[in-house]
């Protein structure tokens, strides 16, 4: 007798994350019976291959989720706010990749390697964390579990895919134009992103932090169920296609050594250590792109803080930062 199969709807199927969702469902052999691909009128009619068959993208409507068991949303917060409750009323469990429900106390915020039990507490919707939070916590949670973490100071180097397919296209077009001596055009980012860094992701708040930076604090606390942990983030957009990197310094409750950190990480799923500075081996976006695992290196005793450790982390924003994590949550649901 074959294993049970599920009807899956993908909302925002033609975007950068939506396409990765479809790819990850296939790569992980998720038991799909019927796959329904949904998007706006602009993208309707596109053909996307899955399981050896071509699927036509349909316009998302109120009845689009009838018969769906699982609905994977990657169409932005405004779409999720309208259509996720409709999908739930239609009988689907929604796994939402937007910021729409992350701060809702009734909606679990889940990284399967960290808080899988929270998924079972859902009332129809489960939220996927912000990509930077997910990638950072993949490297920090094994340390947090073993030695406790009191505070985190992080600077992110975030790829253009965080702004969607349009961000990737804008970077590629600007590189091409600048190389030809043509002035770059901006529509996605406020300034040229090619050969530049922009220390501004999401809107600024009255605190001087951006919403993206505050997300890293709030989501870390929610996922770890720890309201005491402190997080100070500076989020920067960089001219990299799809891998987020970050420099992290954290202060532990127990005094531990860099070798302890390496041991904690090597004993954990979803994170790999590349840390041989004498051989010039450390994580980089070019080696992390397309990889399901996140990577940590440059692990060292911090010179400024007592019980401080510093490290460097890389992870594919479209995968563990979005699509892979969502599909892993779906895998939790069907177990």
What is the subunit arrangement here? single chain
- Element order: H for helix, E for strand: EHEEEEEHEEHEHHEEHEHEEH
- CATH evolutionary superfamily of the largest domain: Dihydrodipicolinate Reductase, domain 2
Number of domains: 2
The first-level CATH class name of the largest domain: Alpha Beta
Q: Helix segment count?
A: 8
Strand order of the largest sheet: 5-2-1-6-7-8
Radius of gyration: 20 Å
Tell me the structural class: alpha/beta
> So what's the overall shape?
globular
- Mean pLDDT level: 97
> Helical percent range?
25-40%
CATH topology grouping of the largest domain: Dihydrodipicolinate Reductase, domain 2
Q: Which residues form runs of ≥5 with pLDDT under 50?
A: none
Strand proportion: 15-25%
How many beta-strand elements? 14
Distance between the termini: 17 Å
Main beta sheet, described? 6 strands, parallel
CATH architecture of the largest domain: 2-Layer Sandwich
Would you kindly provide a written description of the structure presented here, covering whatever features stand out?
The chain is an alpha/beta fold and 335 residues long. It folds into two domains: 6-129 and 322-334, NAD(P)-binding Rossmann-like Domain (Rossmann fold); 133-317, Dihydrodipicolinate Reductase, domain 2. 30% of the residues lie in helices and 25% in strands. The chain is built from eight helices and 14 strands. It has a six-stranded parallel beta sheet with strand order 5-2-1-6-7-8, with helices on both faces. A six-stranded mixed beta sheet has the order 10-9-11-14-13-12. A two-stranded antiparallel ribbon has the order 3-4. α1 (16-27) packs across α8. The longest helix has 17 residues, at 131-147. The radius of gyration is 20 Å and the shape is globular. The two termini are 17 Å apart. The mean pLDDT is 97.
